[in-house]
Amino acid sequence: MIVEVLDIGSNSIKCLIADKREKSFNCLTDIRIPFRLGSYLTKKGYISELGQNKAIYVLNCLQLDIERAYKVEEIIAAGTETFRRASNRKEFVRRIYIQDCLEVKILTPKQEAKLEWKGVLSGLPNPLQPITVFDSGGFSTEIISGRGGHIQSSQSFPLGALQLTKQFVKSDPISTKDYNNLLFYINGVLPVSIVTKDTLIGTGGGALVCACVASRGKIKTPQQAEGYEITVAELQRQIELYKQTDLKQRENIDGMEKERADIMLAAVLLFSALLKKSGKDRFRVSTRGLRHGMLTMPKWYVCPI
Predict the structure, then answer these.
(1) Sequence-distant (≥ 6) Cβ neighbours of residue 63 within 8 angstroms
(2) Three-state DSSP class for 267?
């Protein structure tokens, strides 16, 4: 059965098309559209009408393109942190259903963590090993630990590269004052210690771009980034690089994704803080996540929490 999975995140819309079997799936294509839904969340806590209209348009165009290329038999869609924060989320979900014939399930943090976990495990050669996964999106970061294929603990923090950039970065390049405030805030929200002996795995668009920049542009596809190791030293190199350059210069860095050039400083600062608090000197990149996890669940929309 050909299944289309939509992950409507704060920083991007991800679309995975897969041939799903009874106990496995084969990825046919994986598309990511850098549409920042989180940037349309107003100070009053609702998604603006302009943001809703643009999201509906993007989803509609995506549906038309996919329908031309694949004979999709089932569509499943999920919304995450921006939907959870929005006071008008029910109205927005209703508009998407009416205008795009698409039913979006708003995931709880625990549901999101479980699906992220399942998605990352689906790409590991040894999924039973003790691992800790962190997924840093536009508006939130999840930290999930487990072994034997089962989650033992999960935490969600209101920290994301898009939100942090919007809140703290007021100049280009960033000022010393804003940089110190940003770093202080990240360290204040994260727990004092998350020391683990587990293998540490990072997933999400920021981790992928971090790997591409670390490779000096040699990594061209998500598949090439799978399992790539990012060290503390490399994170520090990127932090210094992003601190000293303006947006135009960052866009031209080898391996940089132009659509993420403005938020990568916040992303790598968050990664660096996670490594230091976990007692690790590196993490491995996974290019799998929520959308892959949806495919592993027989009824993902009612996964136990």
Answers:
(1) 100, 102
(2) helix
Domain co-membership, 250 together with 134: yes
pLDDT score of 231 more than 90:
yes
Q: Which amino acid is at 254?
A: D
Q: Which residues contact 200 (CB under 8 A, 6 or more apart)?
A: 131, 132, 134, 274, 275, 278, 280, 282, 283, 284
Residue at 43 is within a domain: yes
Written as six digits, the tokens of 33 are 């559209």
- The predicted model gives 254-274 an average pLDDT of 97
Report how far residue 91's alpha carbon sits from residue 97's, in angstroms, rounded to the nearest whole number: 10
Q: What is the CATH number of the domain that holds 131?
A: 3.30.420.150
Q: What is the 3-state secondary structure (H, E, C) of 155-208?
A: EEECCCHHHHHHHHCCCCCCCHHHHHHHHHHHHHHCCCCCCCCCEEEEECHHHH
Pairwise CA distance, residues 111 & 149, whole Å = 16
- The better pLDDT of the pair 24, 241 is held by 241
On whether residue 141 sits in a domain, the answer given is: yes
- Burial (CB < 10 A; 0-12, 13-18, 19+), residue 195, is exposed
pLDDT per position as a tens digit, 165-216: 999 999 999 999 999 999 999 999 998 878 788 899 999 999 999 999 999 9
Query: Is 296 inside any structural domain?
Result: no
What are the beta bridge partners of residue 6?
Answer: 15, 77
Per the structure, the complete domain to which residue 78 belongs is given by 2-107
CB 200 within 8 A of CB 280: yes
- What percent of the chain is modeled with pLDDT above 70? 97
